Batch of 2 targets.
Target 1
Amino acid sequence: MDIDSATGMLMLLTAALAILAPSAWGLDRAEFPPGFLFGAATSAYQIKGAYLEDGKGINNWMSSPTHGVSHLSIVLHSFCSHSSAGDITDGRNGDAADDHYHRYMEDVEIMHDLGVNSYRFSISWARILPRGRLGGVNSAGIAFYDRLIAALLQKGIEPFVTLHHFDQPQELETQYGSWLGAGIREEFDYYADVCFRAFGDRVKFWTTFNEPNVFAKHSYMLGTYPPNHCSAPFGTCNSGNSNREPYVAAHNIIMSHAAAVDNYKRNYQAKQGGSIGIVIEMKFYEPLTNTTEDILAAQRAMSFEIHWIASLLRVTLTLTRGMRWSLLQTAIVGFYDVPEGMEQIIEYVNKRYENTPVYVTENGYSQHSSNGLEDLINDVGRVNYLQGYLSSISSAVRRGANVRGYFVWSLMDNFEWAYGFTVRFGLYHVDFDTQVRTQKMSAKWYQGFLMGSRPVDALQTLRAGS
């Protein structure tokens, strides 16, 4: 079957249904419990820019093979010699990204206009501690996040903060071999403590790591994220052991998470009144048939995808990211649009982990950047995607699932790791040459939903108002 053709037909059909039959969705913000967090998400390296400004140190992504020669003398040891690992699809980097560092007030205004009550962002470890704990705290870095948090709170937007979203000071690679060395645990504990002390009086939602199951896999098995370690048959890197290193890295991440959580609960939680957890990427596997062999295969897949991390963290808040696994392909291979899967994974997690509170911290729809501007702005596919997934979450909530928040990935188009700028997830279109932000149809739809209007009815007028 021609998947692209089939996808186009399916998207056209669902868009038409959304416009012509608004009563089919019946989605209303009032269906969610009081205090439910509705937000959008980003991460530091993907949007911030100002890559060496105000005392920020070099991070691991700035030393990747495709970053360029400007940092060659500093990070030569980490360069990868093979043709695939470490390659960014368009050969670009996040030096400027969305220039959020200089435009954060504009972006906070965008969020306020959108109507979100929470914003998930990550702190740049290299901006707070440019060379790790031995290099001292960068006061300019602390000041930037103070300003950002203050601006959010002034607009009634709750900060939802991640400490590690795939980036850390490059100095830690030199000192410890990054996540392969046990010494990095003390580094992370120190970094987390600095953040708790500096921001914890205003930040009530913390997550330690973003998707360690993804990070360990891409950094130490496939070699597609820094430090670009892998071995055959997974890739051809200049160093690495794909059968061992992902588990060593994950072990050190888990131990770092545990230490940070223990520190927060013992020394900060009572007086600051916050909560802390971890973000796990979730994929849901079902057996092909009802045979014992297929059932066991699906269980093994879930274990290697989720439980090798999550099962060790049952005393903490578990957070989940909805993945996509049906025929309707998005711009990234392996990312599909199947909203009913969200309800299934939420119910699975609540049952497996004894009604642990769940926040969907990333859920988004990708487009090819090569699409025409009109198509990127009039993103009907993303509108239908958000309708479907929010409806699925609403159904899970009505059935008793302990879901407490939802964040669209992403607030704006940004640097999408190994894909560079070739794909776009944003509610807001970004022209990376001018840094102009433009509201997409999906942002207008989400705004209508958050403001309490019937969002699908509003969809009928979105094109006219674009």
Target 2
Amino acid sequence: MADKTVPSMRWGILGTGWVSTNFAKDLMLTRPDAPINHIISALGTSSLKKGSEFLQATIPSHKPQPKIYEDYSSVYADPDVDIVYVGTPHSLHLENCLAAIEKGKHVLCEKPLAINEKQARIIVDAAGEKGVFLMEAVWTRFFPLIRDLTELLHSKKIIGDICRMFCDFGLNFNMASLPSTSRLKNRDLGAGALLDMGIYPLMFASICMDGKVGHEAEETSVTADMDVRDGIDYSDAVIIRYPSTNRIAILTASLLVKSPEEFCRIEGSKGSIIVSGPGTSVPNKFTVVIEGVRTEYKYEHEGMGFWFEADAVASDILAGKKENDIVPWAESLRMMGLMDGIRKQGGVVYPQDEP
């Protein structure tokens, strides 16, 4: 009955890796109160075998089964696709987004939107000219936890004047065991800790230290260093200062070690907030500490949580919007520019950076 009473959004999925798999699984969750009926109409993959395995892992048998295409162009051309989800390696985002936009499809592209700000601007300009919806899939920004954390910090000022924060995102990928062709080690594919992991501490800094996005976000000063091996960053350290308030964010990311469960701490004049979870991209609790009294805020939800952003994107498209208020185009461009500057200081240059 729910499918008949709520609007639908028809998705075309590009890629069959971890992120596309979990995104698709979340779209297929049965949520009685879901405001959108998400339908996966098409899958673009490199082989029929991969496509079949992907569908077996993600699409329940009672749901409509998507068409499997052994190329991406057929997904862009499919009339049953409203929006294309780009879950391919970073280096393909520019090509995939432009091709989908050219065919008049809306686009939700995994973060980072591109390899650098130059590429991101090309994508944003194309979406603007074609008049389609575009968003960078910074999924964590849509978690209820982030909404509540933002309100407590900036509206209710629960810890007083914010002074500084520490945030880390690290995972042990056993880099020595990976071949040079791995997405995590291949410079041509935009490998490195910053674009894969560091974007999340940068996101938390923006949320906690500033609370504004895009053109309204404060201009900051940034100091950065990197552990660079074979042209990619294995570990990063970034210090961001916010001149108007003198707030400091100390951020780290690594492909070599896993972060502790308590990965972020925000300190203010009246107390602190500790954010925790199985990973920096999937926070599920924060603890407010004021004068030794600890108050926990715990969050549970079905699936991984990709459906929060999927619902938001679908609602925007159905409302005729071309960009999202939480992750507007200007915010994606700002973050790409910030990461460009960090890479410049750290000494990481991708082939796509060349003139």
